[in-house]
Amino acid sequence: MIEGIPLHYFLVLSTLMFFIGVYGFIVRKNLITILMSIELILNSVNINFVAFNKFLYPDQLQGMFFTIFVVAIAAAEASVAIAIIINIYRRIGNINVEEIAELKH
Amino acid sequence: MSVNQIMFILFASIIVIFSILTVSSKRILRSALYLLFVLVSTAGLYFMMNYNFLAAVQITLYAGGIVVLIIFSVLLTSRINDRFASVKPAKAISTVIVTAIGAFVSISSILQHNFVPAAGVEPISTDVKMVGMQLLGYGTNGYALPFEVISVLLLASMIGAIIIAKKKLD
């Protein structure tokens, strides 16, 4: 428990962050900014896990371990995504999603 | 208003404002920098909740790893002076409406729900010793199997990233 801050504050904050990330995911055209929106979404989920762990089940550490694994998977995802982005840039010279319309080798 | 509340409001406003700037900035490098602020103040929230190890992981992995990786790839693939074209108003407005409806539904259901903490439990210590014991334990509350699986995943993604991004030797 944290004095003066109920659980709902954290949940509302992470909801706002999640939907800002969804907005960016839909509106943006550049692949790297889409990746940043995904990072925002993953981060908001992490806040949720940790807040539930802290407020509802303080006798366990499950939320914290889930968060650590989510962070590790986010790192793996970012590295592979950036490799793909660099490869696309080398082939097409552009990372705008509207101009990447071919899968040809 | 207590110190906790002031700190929470500070972190929360930084997170919300810089998240909006991240998805709306017209310069991609600034966008990456705003993302860094969001991630660091999330680490501040973890510190507030007394998860010190998790906050350290957040700073080193996200702020030190992922954001630096993103900035490198920005420098490799974009020109610094480029600005994005502004979003078409119709698309922006429709997306804002959709996400606002989603946020409204989620927040209203969160505020109506009454979360009940587990009764009569003793809070566990969250220091690094306990984290290490549980992360490598294989009994009750042990996470050895997911730990090993995630290490295989990291190795696979590292090899995959190298193979995808390297130049063809021919």
Question: How do the helices and strands line up, and which of them pair or pack?
Answer:
The complex is a heterodimer of chains A (105) and B (170).
Chain A: H1 7-27, H2 31-55, H3 62-92
Helix pairs in contact in A: 1-2, 2-3
Chain B: H1 3-24, H2 28-48, H3 52-77, H4 89-112, H5 128-135, H6 144-165
Helix pairs in contact in B: 1-2, 2-3
| C-alpha end-to-end distance of chain A | 55 Å
> Order of SSEs of chain B, N→C?
HHHHHH
Specify the CATH class of the largest domain in chain B.
Answer: Mainly Alpha
Based on CA atoms alone, the radius of gyration of chain A comes out at 18 Å
What fraction, in percent, of the residue positions of chain B are helical? over 70%
Largest interface chains and counts: A-B, 70 and 84 residues
How many H/I helical runs of chain B?
6
Counting helices, strands and paired strands, the structural category of chain B is mainly alpha
Arithmetic mean pLDDT of chain B: 89
Q: Which architecture of the largest domain in chain B does the CATH hierarchy give at level 2?
A: Up-down Bundle
Assembly form of the protein: heterodimer
Large-scale geometry of chain A: elongated
Radius of gyration of chain B: 21 Å
The CATH topology of the largest domain in chain B corresponds to Four Helix Bundle (Hemerythrin (Met), subunit A)
Q: Helicity of chain A, in percent?
A: over 70%
Mean pLDDT of chain A: 88
* Helix-strand category of chain A: mainly alpha
What is the CA-CA span between the terminal residues of chain B? 67 Å
Please give the number of β-strands of chain A: 0
